[in-house]
Task: inverse folding
């Protein structure tokens, strides 16, 4: 559509989804497509609402020249009604989102795993929260591959 909207969702919205959101926003900006996309990220849970991303996520993005001012929020009913795409990180996200979307009249969002776009076929983007810097870097690389492929498909 003329204004494809995309949201990137993970459980707590402080590690994976802010990385994916920032990466996608940078790709959109590099391609001069800001007028076509509204990008956001949200959590399935309300654990971290209002919090900035994990410092390791911010540090990983900074290494790649990307800044973000995102604060965690929880996904809303309106998200399902206004976004064209809701991309999530793992199967439990997918289950929760499908369950929530079933309670929303006129859900228009296509809900799928971000990993379905990975040319390297890594379907699941694992939560790096209990890992180290290398795990955050892996998430970054996966998000970059997936977001590039997603943008190419829908651009």
Result:
């Amino acid at each position: 559509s003329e204004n494809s909207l995309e949201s990137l969702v993970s459980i707590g919205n402080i590690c994976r989804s802010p990385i994916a959101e920032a990466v996608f926003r940078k790709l959109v900006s590099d391609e001069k497509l800001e007028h076509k996309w509204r990008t956001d990220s949200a959590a399935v849970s309300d654990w971290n609402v209002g919090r900035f991303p994990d410092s390791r996520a911010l540090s990983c993005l900074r290494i790649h020249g990307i800044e973000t001012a995102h604060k965690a929020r929880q996904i809303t009913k309106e998200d399902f009604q206004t976004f064209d795409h809701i991309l999530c990180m793992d199967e439990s996200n997918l289950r929760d989102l499908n369950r929530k979307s079933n309670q929303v009249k006129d859900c228009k969002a296509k809900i799928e795993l971000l990993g379905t776009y990975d040319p390297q076929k890594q379907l699941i983007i694992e939560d790096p929260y209990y890992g180290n810097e290398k795990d955050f870097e892996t998430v970054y690389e996966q998000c970059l591959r997936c977001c590039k492929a997603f943008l190419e498909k829908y651009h």
About this structure: The chain has one domain: 5-154. The radius of gyration is 14 Å. Strands lie at 5-10, 38-43, 85-88, 110-113.
